[in-house]
Design goal:
- The chain is of the alpha+beta class.
- The protein has helices spanning 35-39, 47-69, 109-122, 124-128, and strands spanning 6-11, 18-23, 31-33, 76-88, 91-104, 132-139.
- It has a three-stranded antiparallel beta sheet with strand order 1-2-3. A three-stranded mixed beta sheet has the order 4-5-6, with helices on one face.
- A hairpin with a 6-residue loop joins strand 1 and strand 2 (18-23).
- Helix 2 (47-69) crosses helix 3.
- The longest helix is centred in the middle third of the chain and has 23 residues, at 47-69.
- The model has no long low-confidence stretch (mean pLDDT 93).
Length: 140
């Protein structure tokens, strides 16, 4: 079992407040976030983009493992996860995540695509998200 952590500090109200987010590893250390970075495209991060980065990284690692187990070499994977936040009654919900990936490997495209679909459904972050997960894969 592995446990990793992130932390956040928040000062002020929802719209006028400011926060900082950090990760246990120190890869993120006091990165700013707030209402304006989440809803107004201001400089800083937000929960959805952090989830998207985690999802893209998790999928890419899961696929790399599966390709390796299948004996496929020459692997290069580039992935983006677009996470959608939508109004849901009085609050908001993450309703979907869309993976866009480009995959290179020394195997036929059909085999790589099959493994990519399995990785999409099987990566731990995909399993965590209670959302619709779709994917576009380009096999180079």
């Amino acid at each position: 079992m592995f446990t990793k952590s992130g932390s956040a500090i928040w000062d002020g109200g929802l719209k006028d407040g400011k926060g900082q987010v950090s990760t246990q590893s120190g890869a993120l250390d006091g990165q700013p976030y707030g209402f304006n970075t989440r809803f107004e495209d201001k400089l800083g991060t937000n929960p959805e983009e952090l989830i998207g980065a985690a999802h893209a990284a998790c999928f890419s690692m899961a696929l790399s493992k599966m390709l390796g187990e299948a004996g496929i070499g020459g692997v290069h994977i580039e992935t983006r996860s677009a996470v959608t936040l939508e109004k849901d009654g009085e609050g908001f919900s993450i309703t979907k995540a869309h993976l866009t990936t480009t995959i290179r490997g020394d195997a036929d495209a059909a085999k790589i695509r099959e493994l990519a679909e399995q990785a999409k459904d099987g990566c731990p972050v995909s399993k965590l998200l209670n959302a619709t997960i779709t994917m576009e894969a380009t096999i180079a």
